[in-house]
Amino acid sequence: MKASLKTLIAGTALAVLATAGVAQAAWPERPVTIIVPAGAGGGTDGTARLLAKQLQDELKQPFNVVNNGQGGGIVGHTQIATARPDGYTLGIVYNYYQWKMLGQADINHTMFAPIAIYNVDPAALLVNVNSPFKTGKEAFDALKADASKYKIGCGGSCGGSWHIPNAELFIKYGIDPKKPVMVPSAGGALSNQDLASGGLDLAVGSLPEGKPLIEAGKLRPLYVVSSARQGAPFQDVPTAKEALGVDMEGGAFRLVAGPKGLPADIVSKLETTLEKIWKSEEFQNGMKQRNFGTKWLNSKDTVAFMQAHEASMTETMKALGLAK
Amino acid sequence: MLDGLVNTANLAKAFGLVFDPKTLAIICLSSFYGLFFGAIPGLTATMATALLVPVTFFMDPVPAIGAIIAATAMAIFSGDVPGVLLRIPGTPASAAYTDEAYAMTMKGQAELALGACLVFSVVGGLFGALALALIAPALAELALKFSTFEYFWLACLGLTCAVFVARGDPLKGIISLCFGLAVAQVGIDVVHGTPRFTFGSISLTGGIDLVPALVGFFAVPELIRNVTANHGRVEIVAQNIGSVFRGQWELFKRYPLNCFRGNLIGVLIGALPGAGADIAAWISYAVSKRFSKEKEKFGTGHPEGLVDAGAANNSALGGAWVPALVFGIPGDSITAIVIGVLYMKGMQPGPTVFINSQDLVYALFIVFFLANLLMIPFGWAMIKASRRILSVPREVLMPIILLFCVVGSFAIENTLFNVWVMLAMGIIGYLFEENGIPTAPAILGLVLGKMIEENFLLSMIKVGGDVTGLFGRPIGGTLGATTLAIWILPLAWLAWRRLGRGGHAT
User: Which residues in chain B have their CB less than 8 angstroms from residue A197's CB?
Assistant: First the structure.
């Protein structure tokens, strides 16, 4: 009895040692924190929790979502960038370069080890159903004639994810993006509500955010800033190219990243796992339920995407006179 | 007739959401929690709501909101019980008729008093739920036409109400309101992105989070008071409590008008920003006495006022949800907290919530009815167990509550900073209450301050800085004129009277 107990202890100790030896190579061996630079219950939080649950199933370690929405997301992004690059702190990064342009915080792609983009929601332009503008072209021609007559909701902060791609379209169409009266709001829902009440002439935003009021027959989308049409129920909304002849993509994105200096083997393991998750029915359905668009870019392409985001932000914010 | 008004698919979905076993279990648990909280003197329905928030964090929208609705409805009723048995109101909403109810106990009618409190709480609660379900969707249809101009005036009206309805010195009401407005200024403003009063602290850039501020403001003062004041044990006079339902039907037949009047006053006062169940009870008790055929019996253990006020404080709960859901303007301090929860659950209050989340809104209505029906058996059980509940030692209870305050404040953003916010607001709240400054206007200022400022600035951007533009739209213009009239007319009246009197003297 005594002997067998001893053997058992020795055996267990050996086993623990053995697994510990292997585990040093096999990340993750303890729970991983995912920092979400936004409050609990919002869109970013929802997508992160969806990913975290499936990462946990795949990698057999808890992936804990920690929300930090302070400073409009600046604090959370900084936390991700300054974490120890050991693979146990990851985070969700979303449209960040406006902070740099507005002089609020220098956050850029070199601070992160980007792993993959999993979501892009293209920007759109919306009008009230009673608006005289039936097409994007009608609206843009009117804006070209005298943009200062029109009040446009920013669907959140001006200079944000929805405003910038639309402003870029304005520039490409020959409209002065500084001329229209741009009206900020605390989020897309308020902007859309104001548009429905007749307080605005146009509003930039996204199709998912506008969906309830579009379906209630209060708002009409004019175009979506994407090179391909969106899935149901927005299959009838023309792309920017169809509506205006300008081929462009732009909007809000979300990606998984770690701090700079994350070991290459962890990046590649995460990349493979995330790709598997992204392709799964569970993830695609979850995103669809929450009205989020899905897009996949691997680590390398994500870096290129971030660089393009920074370049286009710089140019457009300067044209808007918002750069500091 | 209802087909056009009610989306039956969403209604069916709503029933499914509410009658999910997990949701029902949460509603029952929070009912017990509310009954307990309401019965302990000093612990209010608002405090019960504030402490529930961190817990609702981990729930789906319907159980989260259901928990709050059930807990508050139960707490408002349950506050009557120590009033009847100990002459100490469990919540401020019972204070109006505590003396009356206790006088009934002294006459040996404790059962009748407790029963009246229970039965008319249920009737009032159901009436409030009905009013909410009928008025809110209709009002939302109108509110869809509201732009920033209308919201600006509406918020101004709300603040005006807050000062007018606050009991006591209006000057103290204004002090409280200004404090709330000042706190609302902290952080980056949405319109221009300018950081204000942040003192370089990154924690302050996001502003003062409403939930820890409210937890501190409503829970901590009572905890401090509990340490500084000595609560002696009080003996319960009524030894055996018999059948509480006996005689209630006779009471209802004798005072049907009172019951209806109480319900109506409750809903109306509840819907007024800043005034909640407590003020509804005071006013309807006063109305009851004023129009009673037996005025002389009031104060001697006469159940008539209990019928009015007992119904009014429960129907006020439903009334308060109307402006909260439709405009995001809280009708009382409970719904001020609820608005924060709605945001967290992705149900942004406003007319669009009736379009975006119709199933959830229906579920909310159903929970309101359900909670008030559950009050019959639960309330009965509560009365039976009241002696045990009332003898829970406070020295055990209060530290637990403080612990919940701290954990809850931390959990919202996972930051220690919010714990400090909670404690600081708690101390300020204590100083307010000790000096007779009402807390409700401060909370309204905190909630409405941002709304007023944002909508004013946005309106100014739209009209290019022309202030007359605030009157440019029909609804906005009307609301603006009404607000200005409320501000100016009393002053003009006062000036006219002074001048008139002066004329007589000379």
Answer: 144-147, 150
